[in-house]
Structure formats: structure tokens, C-alpha cells
DNA sequence: GGCCTTCTCCACCTTTCGATGGATGCGGCG
DNA sequence: CGCCGCATCCATCGAAAGGTGGAGAAGGCC
């Protein structure tokens, strides 16, 4: 169908992973890797400057902007490329944040090369490409909306789990402490607990947050 | 010096990472990648069958044997290859387990290709190759000989991690709240934190308590 | 247009937690 | 024996967290 190759941008902070993606994807005749970005910020710039069809985006970057933020910025622009998230983690926070941000697909890094190539073609065609594990998680989530925390609530809870105080969380998320407390009150109600440590314990047990 | 190339075995469950390592390392004229292993078990087999100088070993495998176990098995044999651990994570448990198991070096996956190549040569020569971050961690660890919490302190911290309040902990352990607080103060001092959630976060990260 | 949810923010008040600065008894070690 | 670390206990005070009861803006849905 398409005689012109699919133009790709690789965004990952690990040089080894970028080289691996390039090696795997350039083996396909209908792909062309036009650039690599070692940071999320650089990915945003390159996606704007270059004519790119699909961005392969990692979620974890060492510092600075995160992958889902970058995804949101990139997909906001009209005529934006598709963003295919490719990461190691598969927690609810990551998945929901990425999809919310406008990702076309979500793959795990242990995906075999041929499936990866298929997913890129699927994404280039504008269809969503989800790894089976991810699809399963979303199904579970829909089937049992028992612990339905909003995205923002999970975000707050994740920071609580990392040991931050309400003050620190408010600074990190550019909120007031009052708002953080509000979110926490809602979280406690939904989880049926009455303290931050208990919330972290139950949320960890149900796989809502990482670590 | 060495006219024969360094013979490498790549052990990682991510095809993309294996491809990346192969791409990066085969660019060096003095390296030869002789095999790839997608599981730790396969890495052990291949290390025994083939004549290998250095094994590049991931720590996280999806299922089955872990990377540090495989490292222990491989290095136990006389005339064994050097094992260079290459992983994303840098928690104390991982690092210590790998070094304990006989790893010659420990690198993080965001290492630049040239440093990676240097580290492989260093490992091939039998010298230890540690990423600066890792070296720093080990120094910290030596400087402050293990974060040794007393049994009682770990007991208290474990209950904190399960979400119990000081009151509940005191009842569970037949203590007064004052005593629980005392233990917590000591725990905070040893861990270098100043709140219960932060204590749980760091203790979990260093494997002091189970989750 | 209403209705609902989410996210944001505010004020007031109570409880819990953490910080400080003690004290006692016990057991190991030089 | 004295010293030290551990575990236990205590009181007090300020700071942080939690409880209650709001409110307004944005977006999806009927």
C-alpha cells in the first residue's frame, strides 16, 4: 500500500536500547529511523521539527520531563505523529497516564521484534496497538471497577508511597497542600483506610502503585 | 596485546536490548558476540558449552532463575568466564547479591556505548568494572556499615509498612505508644529519613522489610 | 440545559506524629 | 567492674496529618 517508508523517532534514555530498536527496526524495509532522542524534551523538539510518522517513546527518563508528559505535548499538536509507548513497566499508573496523554499503543520491552514491527505498522495506520498483558489489565480494570482511583489520585498516592510529605507533594505537582489533602481524603474513602501508610499498603497489595 | 577477540555472551530477556548490545559491541573490532541467551538458565548452559570470556548478564528475567543466581552458578566453575552485570536497577539488594554471586562488574543500562566497551575490556582483563553510581553506593555502604536495624526495630517498621498506627502497633506488640515512638525515632536516624512513609520507602528499596 | 464526576481550592478543628530530653534494666565485652 | 548498645518507658511541645464541610470550574452524558 504505502510505498513511502514509515518514518520513526526513537525516544529512550538508554543508548543500548536505542541501538537495539534501530537494529531491529531498520531490518524492516518499510521503516526508516529518522532520529533518536535521549531525553523527553529532545523528543518533543524533534517531533516538532522533523516529519515523523511514529514516535517510539519510553516512559522512564532519568531526569526532567517524563515520557507521558512528552506524549501529551507531542500529540496535542495538529497533524502530530502517533506515539507508541514502549516501556518496561506495566503498572496502572503508567498505563493510564500514557493512554490519557494520547498514546496510540503501549508495548512492553520484552516484545519480540516481529510483534514490535507489527505494532509500529498498526500505530502508523492510526490503530491502537496494545500488548496482550496491557489489554488484560485494562479488561480487569473495566470488569472490576472496585478500586477506582482517578489518575490524579493515583499520582498523589504514588508520591506518598515514595515517602513525600503533603508539602513536598504539593510542590512536586504544583498544587496547594489543601488539594493534596482533599485527594488523600478521597483516596482513604475509596480504599477504606484512614492513614497514608495504610493507603500505601493496600494500594501496593492490589498493584495500583509501584514498589 | 591480545590478538584474539574477546568472546561475549549476551544474557537478557529483552530481544531489543540484546540487539542493542550486539549492535554496540560488534562495532568494536576486538569483540565477538558468540551467543545470546533469553533466559538465565540458557545463559548457564551456554556459558558451560561455549568458550566465552565475558558474560553480559541482566538481573531481571521475566520468570525462572534470576540473574544473580545464574552468575553464582557460572562463576563457580573453574576457568569460568567473567560476569559483567548490566541492569536497570541499582538497589542495594541487587548490587550486593550480584557482587556476592561473583560478578566482576556492575553497570547500569544507561551507560554510554564507549564506557560499556571499556568496561567489557576491563572485565575481560579480570579487573572489576563498576559504574560510578554503583561505586558511590558501595562506598556509602562501607562507610555506614549496613543499615543495621535491631530485630525489634524491624518488627516495628514492618507493622508500620502494613499501615498500622503507633497505637495499633503498641497493642500488637504489647508496648506503650511512647516506646513505639522511641523505636521509630531510632529507625529514622538510622535510615536518614524523617517520616514513617519515607522510612517504609527506603527500607523497602533496600530490602530490609518485605512488601 | 441540568446532572455528575473530577480536580482544584479554602477554613476550622482534632488527632496523630515527630522532636527533644530524659530514665531504667539487661546483657555483652574489654 | 565500667562502658555501651538495646529495649523499655515517660512527659512535653510544635508540626504534620486527618476530618468536616464547604465551593467553583471543566468536561462528559442524558
From TrEMBL, chains A, B:
<dbReference type="InterPro" id="IPR001789">
    <property type="entry name" value="Sig_transdc_resp-reg_receiver"/>
</dbReference>
<keyword id="KW-0805">Transcription regulation</keyword>
<feature type="modified residue" description="4-aspartylphosphate">
    <location>
        <position position="58"/>
    </location>
</feature>
<keyword id="KW-0238">DNA-binding</keyword>
<dbReference type="GO" id="GO:0006355">
    <property type="term" value="P:regulation of DNA-templated transcription"/>
</dbReference>
<dbReference type="InterPro" id="IPR011006">
    <property type="entry name" value="CheY-like_superfamily"/>
</dbReference>
<dbReference type="InterPro" id="IPR039420">
    <property type="entry name" value="WalR-like"/>
</dbReference>
<protein>
    <submittedName>
        <fullName>Response regulator transcription factor</fullName>
    </submittedName>
</protein>
<dbReference type="GO" id="GO:0003677">
    <property type="term" value="F:DNA binding"/>
</dbReference>
<keyword id="KW-0804">Transcription</keyword>
<dbReference type="GO" id="GO:0000160">
    <property type="term" value="P:phosphorelay signal transduction system"/>
</dbReference>
<dbReference type="InterPro" id="IPR000792">
    <property type="entry name" value="Tscrpt_reg_LuxR_C"/>
</dbReference>
<dbReference type="Pfam" id="PF00072">
    <property type="entry name" value="Response_reg"/>
</dbReference>
<dbReference type="InterPro" id="IPR058245">
    <property type="entry name" value="NreC/VraR/RcsB-like_REC"/>
</dbReference>
<dbReference type="InterPro" id="IPR016032">
    <property type="entry name" value="Sig_transdc_resp-reg_C-effctor"/>
</dbReference>
<dbReference type="Pfam" id="PF00196">
    <property type="entry name" value="GerE"/>
</dbReference>
<keyword id="KW-0597">Phosphoprotein</keyword>
<feature type="domain" description="HTH luxR-type">
    <location>
        <begin position="142"/>
        <end position="207"/>
    </location>
</feature>
<feature type="domain" description="Response regulatory">
    <location>
        <begin position="7"/>
        <end position="124"/>
    </location>
</feature>
